[in-house]
Amino acid sequence: MVNFKPASTATRADCTQAQGLIAGIPAQHLIADKGYDSDAIVEQAGSQGRQVVIPP
Question: What is the DSSP letter of 50?
Answer without folding.
Answer: P
